[in-house]
Each structure stands twice: as structure tokens, then as C-alpha cells.
């Protein structure tokens, strides 16, 4: 064997393609090749996952349109007399902020389109974030190890809502000025620190000359920077923790089944971005929003009937309108205005705290310390689902309460009757929604159990020899059967003992509380069919499996749904804890 190194003659060498040379140049300087694992990162497919993408793409449109608007907007409260092209407002005193907004609308080419595109993007982004958060709540994706990412996402929702309110207030028109006046009253209602916070935010008695410039800096620098940083961290955690997925054949806590980042997911995401952008542009072009020229400039002594904020602040408006005028005086002459403090400060704080801390409450009640990468179907967790939908119903009651004057005018109803209906509905509607939603979830669990034991309806009618007509049922397909049988059964914590050997239990109260909360969370659910019931059902359907079809714990057998009639392949899927053999794909990189 020769050890002499042989070199190809220089004349025989071929020149590398230009693309390869560019890639080599970039890799030498940036180390891109070391990140090749990201190219094969797998993302599962489900229609509910797209709401987070809608929010992200709307945020990109917001950034692009916001940069454009920044070049033309003048955030000044200096008074001027309008002499622009909008004739009805000519000669009217107004701030430079409102005047520049009119100039963008009527004098800058494409200004109205960009303004409306910016506004519609904000509304769609907040709506998508709300649905995205609700999806995470109902499916339990906030469980370990994603509690921190849940808090980041919830913080993003709060910050984006504040960002929308601040941006909505910048034109200094009569409608947004009224909203700012309400915000000042809410800030003043905070005990002890309310006056200091008002001076810090508004720079003096409202309306002051500092409010619009301060809000402008917050709107274009502070909040966007924080939101952009949190979005980046949020996406990094999604990559790090792997994407959650719904249960199904081949999907375990140790893998992800889906499509790779390159080229499939990137192509789909790119196309979806253009679809979202196009829909936002269509809304901006055909659906008028926030016509500030019809409201006029803000004046503290004026307000228009039917004034409504953007939809995401409607619940706060409704809470303020529903709350009776209630105040009391503390010793020393200090007045506490509960008519503002309770609906506008305490209620939103409690609502946000419950949603933000729910993952930690559920983990404490159940004592579950395991990692969860498979999602719950909402019907499989009736209490959590019922609580989430009841929360949404409370929000909607308050939202419609904020439009009590519009509802009274359009439907010729009494304003006082609508207000009282909202006050009663705040307590009654969430309770009824909780009960109905829980019954629906339990009914769907019973329906799943019936499908497993009796099969699915085929729509075929069969006549028996003695003349009876019956409907023919067929066994569920393998994917559905596996998914229904793999539903986790959560056990209620046992009741604690008061003591042992005459020694009282020092943690009795805490354990009793956990037991009661655990019974509330997991009690009363429909049990899965036992292995014996499944065998009898399959024999009745004529598909009795040779291996028993179900394991002793009621889950699907480890080799899939292998049966004597060849209903399923014999190799099955990876089970939780199994590792692939050498040369196979990594557990978190499985494709279909």
C-alpha cells in the first residue's frame, strides 16, 4: 500500500459553482454549517397552530407600516390652525399631532391605506394572540417544561394590548382623547400611588403638553423593543423545547412527527405570510377604520355619543359602565373610589393573575413533575376547558356591556335594562357556561367510549332473519382507535389522613385543599373501556385480535393495533422510552 499523497494536476481541476463558492465564503466567516440541524427541525401540522403565525406576521406588517408612518407623524401638542385639504376642518384649532394625522390621511400618497393597514394589523394581531393563548390553555401546552414560555407569551399579550392602546391615542382626536381621559381617571383611582403615576405618565393635569410625546416614545421605541425581544426568546424556547403535538399513532413524549423546516415548512410559512399580508391589505383597502377626520380634535368639554374603544379594550369599558357609583372615605379624609378601582384595576389584575399562574396552580394540585410534549384534547380535561370557556364568556359579557348605549339605540331597548342585564350576567353567564361546557365535554367522552365499544355508524341498514332492522357499525380505523385508547386517565388525589399513631398531621389543611382541588379538576370523568370490554366489543364487530388488542392498563398494545385480519402493520410505532436503532432518525426528528 502506497502512502504517497497524490494530487490532481491543476489543469485537471474544475471550478466550483458560484453558489458553492458563496456558501463556502459565508461558512468560513459565520459558521453557518454548524447550524445545519435547524434545517431538519420538524414541525407538526394542525390548523390551530396557525394563530401564532398570524400574530407573528401581523407584527411584521406592523413594524413595516409603523416605520413608514414615523416619517410623517409629528408627535407635538403645540396648537395650530388647520389649513389642509380636508375642507370641513379648515380654520379649526388643533394639535400638531392631529394635524399631521390629517396630512397623512389626505395629502400623503397612500397615507390612508398605510394608516388603516397599521390599525388593522394591530387588531388582527391581538385577536390572534388571544386565540393562540386560549389554544395553549385548553390543550395544556403550558405544562412542564413550558411554564416560563407561557409567562412570556402572556406578557406579550399584555404588552401588545398596551401598545395598541398607546398607538390608538396618538392622533389626539376626540375619540382617542376620551379614552385617555378615562385612563387618567383609572390611574388616579389607584390608592396612594395614583397621583404620582398620573404625574409620571401625563406630565401634569390632563390634557397636558407632554402626553403625546411621551406616548410616542413608548409606542415606537420602548414597547416594540421589549415585544421584539420577547418574541425572539419565545421562538427560541419553541425550538429548544420542541413543538407540542396532538396524540396519535407514532407520536410519543419523545418525538415530533411532522414536516422539516427546510424546505417544506419554510415554503408553507412564506406562502402563509403573503396570504396574511394580502388579507390585511384587503381589509385596509375596503373596510374603513378609525376615521379620525369625522371625530374632530380632542376637547375636554366634548364627547360624542356612541364612543367605543378598539375591541380589545371593550371589556374594561363594560366593567366601568356596569359598576355602580360606590365610594367611601377612610379616616383622615381619604376617598376610595371603588366605582373605578374595582372594575378597572382590581378585576383586570385578578383576571390576568389567574391566567398567568394557572400552570403553577395545576402542577401544585396534581403534583405532576413530568415533562409533557403531547397535548390534551379539550374534551379530555373537562374542568380546565369549562373554566377557560367561562372566562371567555365573562370577557364577552363585559365587552357587550361596553356597547350598552349603541345596543340601546340600535335595538330600541332601555339603557338601564341593558346595564342591569350586564350586572347580572357577570355572575350568571360564566356559571351557566361552565356547567354547559363541562356537560358537553363529558358527553363527548361518552361518545368516544361508545365508538370504541360499538364502532362507528356506517349508514347501512341490515335486516335480520327474524325481520328486525339494525344499523351496521364498523370498527374505527387504526388512527382513531389508538388516539381514543391512549387518552390519559388522571386520578384524584386520595383524601389525607388526620393523623397517624395519635400524631396530628401538620400539613392537613394544605393536603385537604389539594384533595378538593384535585377532585374538582379530575373528578367525574368517563372511564375508558377495560381490556375485557374491548375484547368483547371487537368480537362482536368480527375483528377479534390475536394479541388482545389492548394492554392491561387500557392503552393500545405496544405493536399498534395488530390483529388477526391484518388491520394494522406488525411493526407499530415507537413507544414512550424506546430509542431508535442505529442509523434511524432521531426521536424528535420524525417525518411523515
Automatic annotation (TrEMBL):
<feature type="transmembrane region" description="Helical">
    <location>
        <begin position="418"/>
        <end position="437"/>
    </location>
</feature>
<feature type="compositionally biased region" description="Polar residues">
    <location>
        <begin position="548"/>
        <end position="568"/>
    </location>
</feature>
<dbReference type="InterPro" id="IPR027387">
    <property type="entry name" value="Cytb/b6-like_sf"/>
</dbReference>
<feature type="transmembrane region" description="Helical">
    <location>
        <begin position="215"/>
        <end position="240"/>
    </location>
</feature>
<dbReference type="InterPro" id="IPR016174">
    <property type="entry name" value="Di-haem_cyt_TM"/>
</dbReference>
<keyword id="KW-1133">Transmembrane helix</keyword>
<keyword id="KW-0812">Transmembrane</keyword>
<keyword id="KW-0472">Membrane</keyword>
<dbReference type="Pfam" id="PF13631">
    <property type="entry name" value="Cytochrom_B_N_2"/>
</dbReference>
<feature type="transmembrane region" description="Helical">
    <location>
        <begin position="54"/>
        <end position="73"/>
    </location>
</feature>
<feature type="compositionally biased region" description="Basic and acidic residues">
    <location>
        <begin position="575"/>
        <end position="592"/>
    </location>
</feature>
<feature type="transmembrane region" description="Helical">
    <location>
        <begin position="182"/>
        <end position="203"/>
    </location>
</feature>
<feature type="transmembrane region" description="Helical">
    <location>
        <begin position="150"/>
        <end position="170"/>
    </location>
</feature>
<protein>
    <recommendedName>
        <fullName>Cytochrome bc1 complex cytochrome b subunit</fullName>
        <ecNumber>7.1.1.8</ecNumber>
    </recommendedName>
</protein>
<feature type="transmembrane region" description="Helical">
    <location>
        <begin position="117"/>
        <end position="138"/>
    </location>
</feature>
<feature type="transmembrane region" description="Helical">
    <location>
        <begin position="386"/>
        <end position="403"/>
    </location>
</feature>
<feature type="transmembrane region" description="Helical">
    <location>
        <begin position="341"/>
        <end position="365"/>
    </location>
</feature>
<dbReference type="InterPro" id="IPR005797">
    <property type="entry name" value="Cyt_b/b6_N"/>
</dbReference>
<feature type="region of interest" description="Disordered">
    <location>
        <begin position="543"/>
        <end position="592"/>
    </location>
</feature>
<feature type="domain" description="Cytochrome b/b6 N-terminal region profile">
    <location>
        <begin position="22"/>
        <end position="247"/>
    </location>
</feature>
<feature type="transmembrane region" description="Helical">
    <location>
        <begin position="269"/>
        <end position="290"/>
    </location>
</feature>
Amino acid at each position: 500500500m502506497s502512502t504517497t499523497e497524490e494530487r490532481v494536476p491543476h489543469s485537471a481541476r474544475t471550478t466550483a459553482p458560484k453558489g458553492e463558492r458563496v456558501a463556502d465564503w459565508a461558512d468560513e466567516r459565520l459558521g453557518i454549517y454548524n447550524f445545519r440541524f435547524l434545517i431538519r427541525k420538524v414541525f407538526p401540522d394542525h390548523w390551530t397552530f396557525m394563530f401564532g403565525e398570524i400574530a407573528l406576521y401581523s407584527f411584521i406588517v406592523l413594524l413595516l407600516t409603523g416605520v413608514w408612518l414615523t416619517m410623517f407623524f409629528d408627535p407635538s401638542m403645540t396648537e395650530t390652525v388647520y389649513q389642509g385639504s380636508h375642507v370641513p376642518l379648515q380654520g379649526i384649532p388643533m394639535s400638531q399631532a392631529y394635524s399631521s394625522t390629517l396630512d397623512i390621511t389626505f395629502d400623503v400618497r397612500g397615507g390612508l391605506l398605510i394608516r388603516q393597514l397599521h390599525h388593522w394589523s394591530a387588531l388582527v394581531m391581538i385577536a390572534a394572540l388571544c386565540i393562540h393563548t386560549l389554544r395553549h390553555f385548553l390543550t395544556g401546552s403550558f405544562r412542564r417544561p413550558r411554564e416560563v414560555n407561557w409567562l412570556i407569551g402572556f406578557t406579550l399579550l399584555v404588552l401588545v394590548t398596551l401598545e395598541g392602546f398607546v398607538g390608538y391615542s396618538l392622533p389626539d382626536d376626540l375619540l382617542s382623547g376620551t379614552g385617555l381621559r378615562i385612563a387618567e381617571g383609572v390611574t388616579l383611582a389607584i390608592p396612594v400611588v395614583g397621583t404620582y403615576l398620573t404625574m409620571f405618565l401625563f406630565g401634569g393635569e390632563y390634557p397636558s403638553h407632554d402626553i403625546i410625546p411621551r406616548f410616542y416614545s413608548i409606542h415606537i421605541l420602548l414597547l416594540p423593543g421589549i415585544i421584539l425581544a420577547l418574541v425572539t426568546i419565545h421562538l427560541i424556547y419553541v425550538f429548544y423545547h420542541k413543538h407540542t403535538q396532538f396524540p396519535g399513532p407514532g407520536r410519543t413524549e419523545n418525538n415530533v412527527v411532522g414536516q422539516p423546516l427546510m424546505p417544506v415548512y419554510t415554503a408553507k410559512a412564506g406562502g402563509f405570510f403573503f396570504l396574511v399580508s394580502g388579507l390585511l391589505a384587503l381589509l385596509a383597502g375596503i373596510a374603513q377604520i378609525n376615521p379620525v377626520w369625522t371625530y374632530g380634535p380632542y376637547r375636554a368639554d366634548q364627547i360624542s355619543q356612541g364612543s367605543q374603544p378598539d375591541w380589545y379594550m371593550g371589556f374594561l369599558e363594560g366593567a366601568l359602565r356596569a359598576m355602580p357609583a360606590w365610594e367611601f372615605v377612610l379616616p383622615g379624609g381619604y376617598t376610595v373610589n371603588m366605582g373605578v378601582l374595582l372594575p378597572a384595576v382590581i378585576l383586570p389584575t385578578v383576571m390576568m393573575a389567574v391566567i398567568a399562574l394557572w400552570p403553577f396552580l395545576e402542577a401544585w394540585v396534581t403534583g405532576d413533575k413530568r415533562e409533557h410534549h403531547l397535548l390534551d384534547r379539550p374534551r379530555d380535561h373537562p374542568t380546565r376547558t369549562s373554566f377557560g370557556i367561562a372566562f371567555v364568556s365573562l370577557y364577552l359579557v363585559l365587552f357587550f356591556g361596553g356597547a350598552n348605549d349603541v345596543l340601546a339605540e340600535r335595538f330600541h331597548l332601555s339603557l338601564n335594562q341593558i346595564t342591569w342585564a350586564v350586572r347580572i350576567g357577570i355572575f350568571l353567564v360564566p356559571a351557566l357556561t361552565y356547567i354547559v361546557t363541562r356537560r358537553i365535554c363529558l358527553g363527548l367522552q361518552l361518545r368516544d367510549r361508545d365508538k370504541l365499544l360499538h364502532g362507528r355508524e356506517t349508514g347501512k341498514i341490515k335486516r335480520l332473519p327474524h325481520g328486525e332492522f339494525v344499523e351496521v357499525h364498523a370498527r374505527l380505523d387504526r388512527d382513531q382507535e389508538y388516539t381514543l385508547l391512549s387518552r390519559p386517565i388522571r386520578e384524584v388525589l386520595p383524601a389525607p389522613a388526620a393523623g397517624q399513631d395519635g400524631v396530628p398531621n401538620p400539613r392537613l389543611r394544605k393536603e385537604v385543599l389539594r384533595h378538593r382541588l384535585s377532585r374538582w379538576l379530575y373528578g367525574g370523568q368517563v372511564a375508558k373501556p377495560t381490556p375485557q370490554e374491548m375484547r368483547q366489543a371487537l368480537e362482536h364487530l368480527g375483528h377479534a385480535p390475536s394479541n388482545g388488542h389492548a394492554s392491561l392498563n387500557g392503552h393500545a398494545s405496544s405493536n399498534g393495533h395488530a390483529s388477526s385480519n391484518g388491520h394494522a402493520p406488525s411493526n407499530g410505532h415507537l413507544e414512550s422510552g424506546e430509542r431508535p436503532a442505529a442509523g434511524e432518525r432521531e426521536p424528535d426528528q420524525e417525518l411523515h
